[in-house]
Write a structure and sequence with these properties.
This protein is α/β, with parallel strands linked by helices and 183 residues long. It has 7 helices and 6 strands; from the N terminus they run αβαβαβαβααβαβ. Helix content is 39%, strand content 17%. A 6-stranded parallel sheet has the order 3-2-4-5-1-6, with helices on both faces. Strand 2, helix 3 and strand 3 (68-73) form a beta-alpha-beta unit. It is globular, with a radius of gyration of 16 Å. The termini are far apart.
Length: 183
């Protein structure tokens, strides 16, 4: 066993990390964290809420990263904040059940719950259940939660909170989204 391989299995205190804010790059940052962890011998699972399209990170992960597992729970459409469709609520609940299973399984060193902050803010998943998941996670599992609207309670219990702020975005100049940039 190499030093890198043993790093992932050495007893450690798993961190709770939050990437939030109104700027672009939260999922991209989480994917970068996944790459870093995999490079150190970790097994990583990314569960995406409110997303159903095969984004570039999913395609790359499936093609090149056997130590990264993806699950998506969402449609390829927007969720209405004030009146989410029943299917959106159902998919979010399924995703959260999968998250509880994955976090407690002992199979993964890091679990990323992508866009879970938005799912909580939209009322698809109760905040208290997410806080309970964090409280009950195995002590060695790193947990990374992304998405706008991270609650104050989540920010308080997290070990690290990063806020991505939009200063300028190409949408403002009329440039549409592009493969390799937004997805």
């Amino acid at each position: 066993m190499t030093v890198m391989e043993s790093t992932a299995t050495t007893a450690k205190r798993g961190l709770v990390m939050v990437i939030t804010g109104n700027g672009k790059g939260k999922t991209t940052s989480a994917f970068g964290q996944a790459l870093r962890a995999i490079g150190q011998g970790y097994k990583v699972c990314m569960i995406q809420f409110m997303k159903g399209r095969k984004y570039g990170e999913v395609i790359a992960g499936e093609k090149y990263l056997p130590d990264l597992t993806f699950y998506q729970f969402g449609l390829d459409s927007f969720v209405m904040r004030d009146n989410p469709a029943g299917i959106d609520v159902q998919l979010a609940r399924q995703g959260f059940e999968k998250a509880k299973e994955v976090v407690s399984s002992g199979e993964y060193d890091m679990v990323i719950l992508d866009e879970i902050n938005v799912a909580v803010d939209f009322g698809l998943i109760p905040e208290e259940e997410v806080l309970q998941l964090i409280k009950n996670k195995p002590p060695n599992v790193d947990l990374l939660l992304t998405g706008r609207y991270a609650s104050e309670k989540l920010r308080e219990i997290a070990d690290m909170v990063s806020e991505v702020t939009e200063i300028k975005h190409h949408y403002q100049a009329g440039i549409k989204d592009r493969a390799g940039i937004e997805y």
